[in-house]
Amino acid sequence: MTPVHLRSAVQTLPAYVPGARSTGKDVAKLSSNELPYPPHASVLTALTAAAGGANRYPQMAGDALVEAIARRHAVAPEQVVVGNGSVALIQHVLDTVCDEGDDVVLPWRSFEAYPICIAVAGARAVKVPLTADGRHDVPGMIAAITPRTRALLACTPNNPTGPALAADELAALVEGVPEQVLVIVDEAYLDFVTDSAVGDALTLLEEHPNLLVSRTFSKAHALAGLRVGYLVGEAGIISAIRSVATPFGVNLPAQVAAVAALEPEVLGETARRAAAVAAERDRVLAALREQGWDVPDSQGNFFWLAVGEETSALAEHFGAAGILVRPFVGEGVRVSIGTPAENDRVLAATAAWRAR
User: Fold this and answer.
1) Cα–Cα distance for residue pair 214/128, rounded to 1 Å
2) DSSP string, 256-315
3) Which helix (H) or strand (E) holds 155?
4) 3-state DSSP helix/strand/coil percent for the chain, to nearest 5?
5) What pLDDT shows up at residue 356?
6) For 22-35, what is each residue's pLDDT tens digit?
7) pLDDT average, residue stretch 326-338
8) Phi, psi (5° rounding) for residue 103?
9) What is the pTM of this model?
């Protein structure tokens, strides 16, 4: 054991468990909510060209990328900050607003990195249980706010259960939070939403300066391996976050690829792919329900099987069928939407499980 002092919060951090990695060509990797398709050809071209300049530093704050994002969302560049994936940015946010002993309210179960980020910032995670159908308990989250609360996190669609906040729920959540408490809405999976009732947090920014919206290039844009995320919010908050963010936090090829991903023709293809994934999701959900599964209404590129104590056994069952999934021990299994052929394999495996 090292004689060097380590913060107690660090020594007790829960381990982040990544999705299992494929070890064979016939294995379906559905454990990490990745897009099952490669980046757009023009993005790959830009990425390859940029790699030739890897001996040079990128723009420190990703100015060209920031400007492209600002144009896409019709906001000022001062309202955007980019980082090494949305997880790094959420950590920067909490480091910006939390002092030792502060509270952060969050739904649970949700993205497993949230409690880790909160603990690293020296704060305490106040977990509000989801409803029985895997949704945020909006009144419960608002009721959990105390004078010690510095931030509230929401994930919509929620990872790993899948449901998204309706526009009225999202508005009620943001409006119910005191103005001195920061609201962070993580919309990593918003591109896969097909329910017109689901809210878009960017529409609430103008009236709520305590709101931050998190987006990513890792999912629908097919750039998970490059780690690019961004936040949109009030310029003063964004400036403070930028001051604690890692300099050159987005590498050169990643910046160039993300800018290329925002070109209109590429965005069109991204939307078509996201729609295809969503259609597959809906097909799989319908088939699962026909098999007798009780599955939450997912609006992401994944679905949730709440099997409790059978979680490990179900994950092993998928593994024996050559399918990698993401188990949350004692709670359930999250399965990403893959190609149609991979999804058919999933349905065969779930049917076999039900027929035991």
Assistant:
1) 20
2) HHHHHHTSHHHHHHHHHHHHHHHHHHHHHHHHHHHHT-------SSEEEE--GGGHHHHH
3) strand 149-155
4) 45, 15, 40
5) 87
6) 666 789 999 999 99
7) 97
8) -110, 150
9) 0.94
